[in-house]
């Protein structure tokens, strides 16, 4: 891969019991880690027992993994430290990973008692490059950029390797190409061989959490991005509706959201009483 790395880069893919990032569980994980030193690659792959959560028929129909296939496999809690050690402090990449794989992985780590911090990691969402440049699916992306047909779609290891191959082809495909904006003017090509630039291009920096429940407004203030208080500052809502913080902590918000609002609540409400 012809790109400069100042940290290891882990591309990963998850297969899950369903599509809810809070309630569903990982049943298959595949990670390909690219070393910052020599770009050598190492792989991590596991089937995982989802514990009390059963694989939905809809999910099984997509990835082909049944409850019986994972019944005797280790749970995520049993594998959490092993997975954490493999990833280390690496940046993360995937396909639709910013909105699904990353938040779901963070929830699994939180349930296992592992503090998997994201604030110093960059993320590369290959789907966002593709959607912004050539809106399609992973299968179509693989055909478009790599000139091949995917034979094992929705197998985690096949998907993550296809995603990585698409990413490498995207770097080659767009290198040196002029782009035209919506006004018909030439614009700077955002696809460059730089992790920070790709992170900025594929990540919505106004949202503060992977589930996009919190965001920064134009003044840099944390506001809600959902419900009856959408676009209202979190601290102001907590001040006027005393029970709203407690309500949030009791509901199915991600651990990342709960950590952010807890920090605001402690600093702006409790410490200023």
| CATH superfamily label of the largest domain | Ribonuclease H-like superfamily/Ribonuclease H
Which CATH first-tier class of the largest domain would you pick?
Answer: Alpha Beta
> Do you know the CATH architecture of the largest domain?
2-Layer Sandwich
Query: What is the helix tally?
Result: 11
Q: What Rg do the Cα atoms give?
A: 20 Å
**Could you please say which CATH topology of the largest domain applies here?**
Nucleotidyltransferase, domain 5
Number of strands: 9
Tally of discrete structural domains: 2
- Report strand order across the widest sheet: 3-2-1-4-5
Strand percentage, roughly?
A: 15-25%
- The H/E string reads EEEHHHEHEHHHEEHEEHHH
The parts where pLDDT drops under 50 for at least 5 residues are none
Could you give a quick summary of the protein structure above?
The chain is an alpha/beta fold and 273 residues long. Helices cover 41% and strands 15% of the residues. The longest helix is centred in the middle third of the chain and has 19 residues, at 156-174.
Features of this protein?
2 domains, globular, Nucleotidyltransferase, domain 5, two-stranded antiparallel ribbon, 273 residues, alpha/beta, five-stranded mixed sheet, single chain
